[in-house]
């Protein structure tokens, strides 16, 4: 995605919007390696505008095989694969396409603008569960060159996600063990500029396997 496209998208953004990136620290020479197979790490980006300092120290979980946020461990963190150029799919270990359009998944009831969005899901999405072939078939994922890490985006520069805050451990950091949590696209607008109380804004980092 070129800088001009980002600028055009920002000027055209309506009141109901996906979270958009800051332009201040974009380095167009920083090319993202969104290829192959990877873990997907969940980075707490609350309070930051996309350039999250020391991102790996702000990891609060990873994506499990059905698309939920789980504590980081070799058992919990599924290995996903990027497939296709356009549309680009993220595929689970079981061979399922991850999607925001499985209508059997819970909606973000706490959010004013996100109450009609479905939790990300990487299990089986059949015809009855899909919002429709036009949504599911055309759904594509990408990264934006210029950021420090390959953060997974979709839609109209939709890189931020919204999730319930994981329980905290004694040190104030996320507990080492918690039940898997749902993850939604982050929507905002004039009635709600930030994630609601009890939620955190996060980015999904494509943590590429080197072997």
End-to-end distance, in Å? Answer: 28 Å
Number of helices: 2
Strand percentage lies at: 15-25%
Number of strands: 12
Structural class call reads mainly beta
Shape verdict: globular
> Stretches where pLDDT falls below 50 for ≥5 residues?
1-29
Helix content: under 10%
Pick out its properties.
2 helices, 7% helix, globular, 22% strand, single chain, disordered N terminus, two-stranded antiparallel ribbon, mainly beta, 211 residues, signal
Per-chain topology:
Elements: H1 3-11, E1 17-18, E2 37-44, E3 59-63, E4 69-70, E5 80-83, E6 89-91, H2 133-138, E7 141-142, E8 153-154, E9 161-164, E10 184-185, E11 187-188, E12 199-208
Antiparallel strand pairs: 1-11, 2-3, 2-5, 2-12, 3-4, 5-6, 7-8, 9-10, 9-12
What would you note in describing this structure?
This protein has 211 residues and is mainly beta. It has one domain. It is built from 2 helices and 12 strands, in the order αββββββαββββββ. The strands form 3 sheets. Strands 2, 3, 4, 5, 6, 9, 10 and 12 form an 8-stranded antiparallel sheet that branches. A two-stranded antiparallel ribbon has the order 1-11. A hairpin with a 5-residue loop joins strand 3 and strand 4. The protein is globular, with a radius of gyration of 16 Å. It starts with a helix and ends with a strand.
